[in-house]
Amino acid sequence: MSQISLDDVTVVITNFFSGDKLDKCLSHISPKIKKIIIDNGNEVENKKYYESKFENLIYYLSKENLGVPRSYSLAHSLVKTKYMFNTQPDVIIKQNCIEKLIQRISTYPNAIILSPIIFHNSNYYADGDYKVLKKNIKNKIKTKTKNLCEKIPDGDLSVDAVTGTAMLIDRSKLSQLNDWDKNIFNYYEDMDLCLRAKSKGFEIIKIKSAEVDHMAFSSHDCKHEDELNFSRNWHYSWSHLYFKRKHENKLFSNLWGFFLLAKSLCKCFFYFFISKKKFLTHYAKSLGFFYSLIYCKSFYRPNIKNKN
Q1: Would you state the pLDDT for residue 219?
Q2: Residue 174 and residue 99: Cα distance in Å, rounded?
Q3: Which residues pair with 34 in a beta bridge?
Q4: For the domain that residue 95 is a member of, what is the CATH number?
Q5: N- to C-terminal Cα separation, the chain
Q6: What 3-state class would DSSP assign to 59?
Q7: How far apart are CA 265 and CA 77, in angstroms?
Q8: Do 118 and 128 contact (CB within 8 A), yes or no?
Q9: Of 151 and 240, which is predicted with more confidence?
């Protein structure tokens, strides 16, 4: 394999009213690395600001909120480099993280994804760093990493899946998977991609020496907190059932979804007079499960207006 350098990587960030978080994220990325921002809020003034402040940056304004998979798919069509490093505005890329990932590429020629060790608000949290796919999915992936990530790995680690917080992706291998599942708006697109990659025989590797810090659930401006929390719970429920039904027995998955819908509705009634915030959380979850159960598309979009 020829020598891989920073010229072979493009950082891709999806942005939706992130406020100053995107600025902070970009300030930790080497100016030598190409960067593409997909702005789903169509904040026109941001384009001039970011393209003038940061080198090697293209700021793409989307007239509609594409969601995560469609944004990455769009970026995949725009990227010219062999590798793309997908991340989020609420992620701080620690010193030489991308460089360290690049240095390990030749060690794992069968890897489709290299992922750094992920800290959450400076603390290591295993479940946020990786997730294990269940044994009963149709391609029968064997779960070997369940107990290996309770502490920071001693070295590089082959895993079943990683979250979409930070992924260095080999685009030639990605093309063999037919891209991201664009039926999903948000959530479980990372698990779906990893599952299909593993079923294709590719590896997913956590790189010990590379690190990022993720300020979880904070990729947006705090003034939009309520609306985006509702959207998160709606889409998490919709996508969870969609993913389960896609990769497991449909009847069992629908029964599971019906049970969780009933559970969410019960919690709606319980919290109606007690906590507005918790009521809205479970109301959003119940709607997500309901529309997924009746095979509706993932249609909900946060009601945030762009003032530009």
Answers
A1: 63
A2: 21
A3: 10
A4: 3.90.550.10
A5: 47
A6: strand
A7: 41
A8: yes
A9: 240
Best CA proximity match to 68, nearest among 192, 230, 175, 185: 185
* Domain with 178 in it: 6-214
Task: State the Cα angle at 88 between 67 and 5, rounded to 5°.
Answer: 115
Residue 76 has pLDDT above 90, yes or no: yes
Tokens linked to 93: 């890329």
Instruction: Report how far residue 38's alpha carbon sits from residue 50's, in angstroms, rounded to the nearest whole number.
Output: 12
Q: Is pTM beyond 0.85 here?
A: yes
Write the single-letter amino acid at 117.
I
* Same domain flag for 226 and 190: no
pLDDT at 150 over 60: no
- Categorize the per-residue pLDDT at 148 as very low, low, confident or very high, splitting at 50, 70 and 90: very low
Diameter of the chain measured on Cα atoms: 64
pLDDT of residue 147: 39
Do 68 and 182 reside in the same domain of the chain?
yes
My answer on whether 99 and 245 are in the same domain is no
CA atoms within 13 A on the CB side of 287: 16
- Provide the percentage of residues in the chain whose pLDDT is more than 70: 87
Q: Which residues contact 119 (CB under 8 A, 6 or more apart)?
A: 125, 211, 212, 213, 214
Domains contained in the chain, number: 2
Angle of CA points 75, 78, 79, to nearest 5°:
85
Range with the lowest mean pLDDT among 123-132, 183-192, 248-257, 266-275?
123-132
Instruction: Check pLDDT > 80 for residue 73.
Output: yes
**CA separation, residue 177 to residues 74, 143, 161, 290 (Å):** 15, 22, 15, 29
Burial class (CB in 10 A: 0-12, 13-18, 19+), 193: buried
Question: Does some domain include residue 83?
Answer: yes
